[in-house]
Write a structure and sequence with these properties.
159 residues; alpha+beta; 7-stranded mixed sheet; 4 helices
Length: 159
Amino acid sequence: MEPMTEAGWRAQRDDAVPEDVERLLATVPEWFGRPESNAEYIDDARRMETWTVRDDSGRVVGATLVTHHFPQTSEIHFTVVDRCVHGGGVGTAMIEAITEDVRARGTKLLEVKTLGPSRDHPNYARTRHFYEKMGFLPLEETDLWGADTPCLIMVKSVG
């Protein structure tokens, strides 16, 4: 179990939780409103390294999937937090725990991809602000996801 944050949440590496990811996605359709993308995230949740935050009853209220591309680099592949606890420190608990874990593994850079600022979207502006608050810096906006969905690559030094 990882250390508790100021808000009282604990993040931990966990077993696969695809059913919880599916439930959490449904609480935030303004971020995750594409059924085909959601199906991919749910499938990813069956096989990728999973970090969760659970409430006092043991119910998953946040999940993050992590990939390790090289010994020096890891990526936050996906994060979802139940709307009922948005802004309460769940996301922070997961990112802090993952940062400490990848640092202990010898990772130097942690990466995350999100919708880029050239596509005006207030919810993703909040997402980018959150990652900036967690120490991520914008590196590059690309057309990785297609011209209508600009991908912002953000990185954080953890070494």
